[in-house]
Design a protein that fits this description.
Layout: H1 3-7, H2 13-40, H3 46-73, H4 85-88, H5 101-126, H6 131-166
Helix pairs in contact: 2-3, 2-5, 3-6, 5-6
Bound molecules: fe (ii) ion (2 copies).
Length: 167
Amino acid sequence: MGEMAKKIVKTDLEHLLKVLNEAYAEEWLAYYQYWIAAKVAMGLNRTAVVGEFEEHAAEELKHADWLADRIIQLGGAPILSPSEWDNMAHCKYITPHNFDVVALVRDNLEAERCAIGRYEGICDLTHNSDYETFRLSRKILKEEIEHEQEMEDFMADFETAKQYIKA
Ligand SMILES: [Fe+2]
Ligand SMILES: [Fe+2]
């Protein structure tokens, strides 16, 4: 990291790098959670749900990319072995056991809520001490909030469809 760039980070760098690497691990797991869900999904409104899963997968991967760049900028190294992802992540990968879109959307909704908490935490940690990481975590937080909304919208659609089926 550049000399001046380092000077303006007024937080415990080791702790910050640990937290950023946890988020980095979570993004890879979130990417795979959506990617595999898009492959195995079946049931109601499948095409629309799969399209959204694929879009979200691409965005989670982009988040991992942004985090890796920031970790390197701060003088750290992104986790080098995928075998560490699960250990490092607090937002855990949820193995899909039920391939119905309703179950898959529910799994991803849970994952998004965890991600929102993760970026709230990084925002809290950096808002007064590391402007660039704060900007990045707010940018990711904005997208996780949109992801949660889109998963909630699908859940609402499933509820509506159930009413039609009953009628
Ligand atoms: Fe993400
Ligand atoms: Fe997300």
